[in-house]
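Structure request: Beta-L-arabinofuranosidase domain-containing protein, Streptomyces tibetensis.
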Amino acid sequence: MSSSVSRRRLLQAVGATAAVSATGSFACASPAHAAVPPARADIGVSARPFALDQVRLTESRWLDNQNRTRNYLRFVDVDRLLYNFRANHRLATNGAAPNGGWDAPDFPFRTHVQGHFLTAWAQLYAVTGDTACRDKATHMVAELAKCQANNSAAGFNAGYLSGYPESDFTALEQRTLSNGNVPYYTIHKTLAGLLDVWRHIGSTQARDVLLALAGWVDLRTGRLSGQQMQAMLGTEFGGMNAVLTDLHQQTGDARWLTVARRFDHAAVFDPLAANQDRLSGLHANTQVPKWIGAAREYKVTGTARYRDIATNAWNFCVDSHTYAIGGNSQAEHFRAPNAIAGYLNKDTCESCNTFNMLLLTRELFTLDPNRAALFDYYERAWLNHMIGQQNPADPHGHVTYFTPLNPGGRRGVGPAWGGGTWSTDYGTFWCCQGTGLEMHTRLMDSIYYRSDDTLIVNLFVPSVLTWAERGITVTQTTTYPVSDTTTLQVTGNVSGTWAMRLRIPGWTAGATVSVNGTRQDIATTPGSYATLTRSWTSGDTVTVRLPMRVIMRAANDNANVAAITYGPVVLSGNYGDSTLSSLPTLDTSSIRRTSSTSLAFTATANGSTVSLGPFHDAHGHNYTVYWNAGGTVRLTNVGSGLVLGIQDMSTADGGRALQWHDSGTADHDWHMVADGNGFRFRNAHSGKVLGVLNMSTADGATVLQWSDNGTADHRWTLLDQGDGTYKIRNEHSGKLLAVANNSTAVGAFAVQDADDGTADNRWRVVRM
Ligand SMILES: [Zn+2]
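Returned structure:
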């Protein structure tokens, strides 16, 4: 347990950066929120998000999640969060009770979570104007300033601010630290939280504490050799490169970029820059914040290597390491590329990783706003993983650490270290709890972007955009994804010709865009942006329809293991309190939607009816996300009515195929493994596949089972006869699967035969 402990968490606040990364053109957007714009603009950016106070969620599941997190943020006792800081900096703890879990006074990386609270309070204030959260943030900063000011009495260097002794950093630098602490991981959180209180609330005290702490980082790292620094980066350090780059942008002081680049981790960056996926075996969430930092460093330096690192990392992670729900990692680690079906365990999909991947996606989108795949991924992960991460039955919106993908899994699984089920008010304080606070206070931040005068609509959520600089209001109304349609009404100073770009997801077909009821003749290619350019009138209403259908999403490594999707939604099976020992076998042709007002579906699996619903709503019951969707079939001969099996239920190479009564033995069940345009028939009992003796091409040659070694005689093509029967043709010989001598006898052997029109040449494929 302790070996994985030293790399357990995650995050940072870089995404918040993007929200204010424009050159301050919206500083006047809302006088109520004294957002402090950055001193420097990002390089290479061709789309920008709106400020946090310009987009508001309206009634929806998203707003419900935000409100539950708001309840907790308003409830939590700041004195308890200050306990470890005050104790470490030799100040009175004012009678506050210490916390448990990852903020217990003896936990090695205590005070990692407080920065998340600062960020979440600041964001919620910026988004909603919640002054209770603003006041908690500024109060906490004032108390942290007192801790920092007492450093000489505590024996620490100027600027230090943490809940554990500075001597942990000495041990870290000397590579002798063995208590499980990940010191710069926690410092990153504190820096990011202070930055957010400065830029979203306008607290100059937060700025001053931040600059002093950053100066301390410069002091400690500036005296290390490059070799010492790289060795130290072997210990998880969060997104130090990201937050220090943000500080450079915010202040305009090049000193912070210099410090940031000391945290460029060569062992991780070098292969990514060379477009090599060497992620297998790495602690997953230790890496993602570094990638975000690379994107930030690109936007400051313009150095292509940084952009390549961030882009390649995103591509590898999303394409080769991500489950259907948009999460990655198993037991917190990356596995081999495309290893998905082999890792459907209880400890899949740590929440932090996805939160950070969303931040990375935002960073990349501003560089490449034509790449619809970015927000196709974002929507998938945001909806299926992040929205479902929070327990809707808990008024404080507590979260799960892992999202299990084992058959019969159930949300509410804590980390290996610290255990438990759901996070709690004061007893857990895991990394995922911290990033969850950030996630659910910024659910609105990626719905809309802008590129000059063009409005980009990426997500379909009930919301209101106040584009203050142009005097335009956009009101989005929808029940998506229950409905496939959303409407966007533009009001205010909309006149003139400008464009609205609408994401047309890759999963749709036949998407339409209408204005005031009139269908527009514009391209709506799936996986692209539809561009609607017109001369607008206040009140114009755009209706976007994105037809949804059931699509099976197979695991990269096993075409028979698949998740069910409907539009952007992963559908899971509700198994109540039942346990499942293996993936249920799904009859994919049986999936039916049973309601037009909800995403209720049914299907047949393991021969029984199971209810399907959106995975983000799969709470309080056991579920399965993945299915054995290849299923098994029985092959019934049309001539005899008998089924194909293996002689004496042999499991050996060379066991002969024959026909037998449908007696239910396991050797009668076959998995159809998709293979090009054909299939391999894998016997469910023996695991061997159906082939032809010696790869013969002769009429009458023996059909048998053999190890699945990839020879061409193992592939068969189904020829649909239009009456519910099939001819099954061997791809190597071109002959048909048949019964010797057209026999109808029990025990007659299977052979390959010419297509001579006899009934034994045809089979019914009966799904089990
Ligand atoms: Zn986490």
